[in-house]
Amino acid sequence: MKKTTLIILFILLHAIFPKLIFANVKLPAIVSSNMVLQRDTTVKLWGWADAGEKITIKLSWIEQDIKIEADSNGNWMTKVQTTLSKSPQSINIKSNSSNINLNNILFGEVWLCSGQSNMQQPLKGYMGQPTFGGMMATATSNNPNLRLFTVERVSSDTPLSDIEKFNSWQQASPETVLDFSAVAYFFGQQLQDILDVPVGLIHTSWGGSSVQAWMSSEVINQYPEINLDDKASSNPPNRTPTKLFNAMIHPLIPYTIKGALWYQGESNRLEPEHYKKLFPAMVKDWRDRWQIGDFPFYYVQIAPFTYQDKDTQTPYVNSAFIRETQLQCLNLIPNSGIAITLDLGDEYCIHPPKKKEVADRLLLNALNKTYGYETIDCNSPTYESLEIKDHGILLHFENAETGLYTPDTLSGFEIAGSDKVFYPAEAKIINRKNVFVKSKEVPNPVAVRYAWKNWIIGSLYDVNMLPASSFRTDDWDDAKNN
After folding, report:
1. To pair with 386 at 20 to 30 A between CA atoms, which of 142, 171, 292, 337?
2. Alpha-carbon torsion 247, 282, 259, 268, what sign?
3. Which of 332, 81, 86, 296 lies closest to 187 in space, CA to CA?
4. What is the H or E stretch that residue 325 is in?
């Protein structure tokens, strides 16, 4: 009874004398000491306080204080211009009830890294599933100019205003990188070394997650084939529409980023046609919400894997279809790039250990398309057109300006006639820029497929060792293999 009386008294006092009772100024988890703010641009600082509370913000790099007032709902936000300085900075946020000091802040390049388990895979690897080079990378990771922030796995039915579980901004060190995303770390460490500026990595991933889980309800409701009510009760959180967006993306907005890295798709491989709509829609929605334009979005094509039932050894639906969809999304997502991994898969493990190679190919995209390194090749050779000649098919490729290459014999090619039955075919590089495909079983060929199966090791590259994606020259749904 006494406790209830005190609560009622507190409410009455706050209503009658609101200026006598203050709530501390609160900052979002992503805004803290040791953070990296995107350099040389306008960033946003925001948080919460009592309605109408007056707040003064002192910035070490700007002489004039910023004075703002929380709105009627207790929200406040201000825009701040950052510089190219490499020196540590500080921020003081003060009100009648609070005095917050943020120290050791750097200006640099901030990248958001998201997806499912292959993005989540840490430098230490998973149980029985290694990350090649992870221990040496950990041993040499001390770097005060590389900062890491991790959003822990949390889901929500509604959009959250702040992150509920996280590892706050930390400097890279053997203690902090071991459990951090290997792809994100390898990307960020090399980017920091090449640009010689601070780099901040925000990692927010959940193994086994579908693209639907990373989409807002406003966007996914535009697709009637996705029934939110039915799926919310039966699916785990990482495969339930909107749940990861609500808890692991929405609270990060509007923290200014340079771009995003994405490694996801295995959980959507059975629905390539849906993915072709949903993935570009997700990217557009994120960009609209961040309000910083079409920021760079670089993503990984899923690697080959057996994908077969462990009991019957029956192969599942061909994952080449989702790889094809991911390649096609390049033309649907502005300012995007793809890392082809056709040569990096593991036949019996869905988590390939060669994460540095994946990060390297994402980095090549960023260097070429974002940071102006025009001499850095980042585009894998891509099928363009065909000619039927000499009872075979001659294939032409884009992004093969310096020629095609194979470290061994070309393999994985199939050829078919009008009966739509594919036979294994011989293939060879012609004039260092084309591929000629032929089979004695198909005297009048009309179509070619390359690496069109779940498990395959890519054999076709350009001279910079960027592998070609699996591809097909047909659009048949009823083709067969001999």
Report:
1. 337
2. positive
3. 296
4. helix 320-328
**Phi, psi torsion values for 365, nearest 5 degrees:** -60, -45
**480 contact partners, CB below 8 Å, separation of at least 6:** 420, 421, 422
Supply the CATH classification number for the domain 112-369: 3.40.50.1110
Token representation of residue 91: 């921020």
Question: What are the residue ranges spanned by the domains of the chain?
Answer: 24-106, 112-369, 382-481
pLDDT tens digits for range 213-240? 999 999 999 998 775 554 555 789 999 9
Q: Which of 124, 362, 119, 359 is nearest to 238 (CA)?
A: 119
Residues 6+ apart with CB under 8 A from 371: 195
Residue pair 50/18 in contact (Cβ under 8 Å)? The answer is yes
By DSSP bridging, strand 166-172 and strand 143-151 are antiparallel
pTM above 0.85, yes or no: yes
Look at the chain and count its residues: 482
pLDDT band at 315 (very low <50, low <70, confident <90, very high): low
* Dihedral sign, Cα of residue 271, residue 274, residue 278, residue 280: positive
Which pair of tokens denotes residue 201?
């990595």
Cβ distance 215 to 278 under 8 Å?
yes
Write out pLDDT tens, residues 73-110: 999 999 999 999 999 999 999 999 999 999 999 999 99
Name the architecture of domain 24-106. Answer: Sandwich (2.60)
Output the six-digit token pair for 260: 């995003």
Residue type at position 42: T
450: alpha, beta or left? (left if phi > 0; alpha if psi -120 to 50): beta
